[in-house]
Amino acid sequence: MKYLIVLCCFLHVFLQPAHAALEIESHREADLYTELAGAKLNKMIPILVELETLKGEQILPLFTLLMAGNLYYVKADKALVGKANEQGATSYKSVFTQEERPELGKKDVKKVRVNNKLRSHLRTAIARIQLTSTSPVVREKAVRTLLAKLDPKTIVLLADRYAIEPHREVKNAIKLALALYTATQTQQSISDRVMAIETLSTSLENQVRNTLVQLTQDTHQPIALAAQKSLTQIEQRAQRFALVDKLFFGLSLGSVLLLASIGLAITFGVMGVINMAHGEMIMLGAYTTYVVQLMMPNYIDYSLIVAIPAAFVVSGLMGILVERLVICRLHGRPLETLLATFGISLILQQLVRTVFSPLNRQVSTPSWMSGSWEINPVLSLTLNRLYILAFSLAIFFLLVMILKKTSLGLNVRAVAQNRAMAKVMGVKTHRVDALTFGLGSGIAGIAGVALSQLTNVGPNLGQAYIIDSFMVVVFGGVGNLLGTLVAAFSLGIGTKFLEPITGAVLASIIVLVFIILFIQKRPKGLFPQKGRAAE
Amino acid sequence: MKGIIHFVRGYGFSQGHEAGKYTFPFVLLLLAVSVFAAAANTFLPVDSALYVSTYTITLLGKYLCYAMLALAVDIIWGYCGILSLGHGAFFALGGYGMGMYLMRQIGDRGVYGHPVLPDFMVFLDWQTLPWFWQGMDHFGFAMLMALFVPGLLAFVFGWLAFRSRVTGVYLSIMTQALTYALLLSFFRNEMGFGGNNGLTDFKEILGFDLQADSTRVSLFLITALLLVVLLLVSQRILSSQFGKVIVAIRDAEPRARFLGYRTERYKVWLFVYSAVIAGIAGALYVPQVGIINPSEFSPINSIEIVIWVAVGGRGTLIGAILGALLVNYAKTRFTAILPDAWLFALGALFVLVTLYLPQGLIGLVSQIKHKWQQVRRKEVGA
User: Fold this and answer.
1) Calpha distance A126→A138 (Å, rounded)
2) ipTM of the complex, rounded to two decimals
3) A124, A452, B141, B241: which one has the fewest Cβ atoms less than 10 Å from its Cβ?
4) B183 to chain A: nearest residue by CA?
5) Residue A329 above 80 pLDDT?
């Protein structure tokens, strides 16, 4: 938020060429700058107020610099300069002309100090100035910032702006601010205040809620009642959004479970064996992301696009290797396969510990994935979770397409349904096994890329997922991808809805116990495969 | 002596049962070594070449507890084909039973000096003893609980699982989920079992100081004796008619069912029996190592038990014991010399044993013997 304002301000400065040639003309102004350079903290606010009235929006660069704590003054002549950090190197520029001052070093300048009181004054001052910005987004943000500190001066400003404001969203925000002000003014008529309070019921802003809570204690009965009513409405809306938020986190957990379990679902469905090293395939994918980022440190934004196929290949090849060397020799002995793959998982974990380190590795998030999508003051969705949710669904549909539309998919389904019959019909079951295993492991690798954006990348990354993902597969029904999808999302949402009530640990215990009991009741999962086998 | 041999014979050793043949000598060897180690510790001077340190005695006692645990897993995996990846849970529950008793024995000698409440409860600011801690200061009752709780859990779990015909890998993962759920629960302080730190700082058992050499040697001897008894009883059970049905279930469960056996009941009782053995092992383990904490529930511990059985040779009972002793000895040596290499070795053990030694070391012995006999027969024939 803060950075956004700073960014906007800088853009604003560049958009107005008049600034480039700005020179300090008036003596008073120059005096003020000098005063600002050496002023004590408690003397600064009057200076800032005077500057604001003198210069209007042209003072914005100075205010933003001061706000960010980047305003310095040269010790020799008390000229104000801004500190800029570009690629690790610190440089100083004069505030208004943006001229580089290369001769200045760390020892030639001194910081203009700010405290919280000043910052809060600056925040509203900047917002006041930004009200006239050309961008409606900046203007709306400015109004919302002003909500925190409404005084008569600001209200006049806002009312003037309201009359000429062309943009609807900004207009609504200003209306809200005016209503908020009116609601608190005891000299206003009661009916006006009640109307203002009713207008407030559409807002989710924190300030509005705080004000309303105070107003419920008002001595005038109608006002207290109206405030109570508005507050209830707001709370209800906020609760609805909290529900959406919880749902989103549930879906996000579901998407992680889906990514982790979908590969297992294929291998288990086709070969009837549990690959206990599945979690380590996920881990390999995450480490592939790490290595890719090490190799292209200057292109982190593109690293994931490279990492996804790389992780698929690394984990997929490892899967095929494991299948050819171990699993195909244990054909028809699922329990032994389980043990052998567990051994492989131990080896892979230790391998990673030896090659990298037992400590967690740092995987960076590309800029396009960081941050969040703020829908309203109570609901904001983090972008990385949103992307991973979409990604998991994309992978799911891709996989369904592979199974439904390609000849490999046909063979895989044939072997899954009836291995002996498929073999008789000429399906090369060994090849199908190896490819299935490669595919399942490759997708686990891709899951690792996604997980590297959410959790720590360490040797134990995979271990945490093997039980969970097996639960998903069993819950959904073996050999049924749709079941896996439904199971992953319902378990994810279920866990997230239980968590606030019971706490995280108890929630996962409850889910585990639920599945254990569920399996007793329906051993073949939610969507069982139909068949006539005796068992 | 003749009487003893006759008694032992009754346990089905001379019925051509491949593993049974070795049981009698194995039992004798085990007892002899145990008694010798105990005597060497007690009677020999410290500087004697044959002296066995108390540290070694405790280590051996620990191995024997693991061996008992392996026996429990072999009974259900080797004879009934139920691969339990959660036997560590029963072991740990038994251990917690003993741990609670030992905790109560500390009395007011804890750090906080509270007459009734264990330290961690005082620390959590609890006022009274939770109901499930009541009566745990009586040794008999505590031991009963150490056997009863794992047995009950096994009964409920087994009854639910076997009745719904959950088998194979499903069952294995279910047992793993079971121990994982218990792991998570026991980590919680609210559970009343000491949370993360578990139960430790024990002082004495039945009035004997736990740090004293004599107590340690006695515990070791009791473990060895109980192991032998459980081995013999298990051998007896598995060679009875009940055992024959169990093996039939392992080899072809639907067929056994079609023949009219209520297979799920056989499985449930065998599962309970196995869990109780694991509980006994846990109860013996805790006073010897002096601590029980939730990490005993971790899935990897349970899966390690299975590899001990696999290395020794499943379905042979003594193979399981042998495997547990060998692998744990190797683990102690390995982790001392090359700590990083142990997981590689363990992982490789999993892979190699399942690939090349499906019958374990015991199986290897009979394989070699078989080969040798073939060779000799050829020579004689020629």
Assistant:
1) 11
2) 0.85
3) B241
4) A509
5) yes
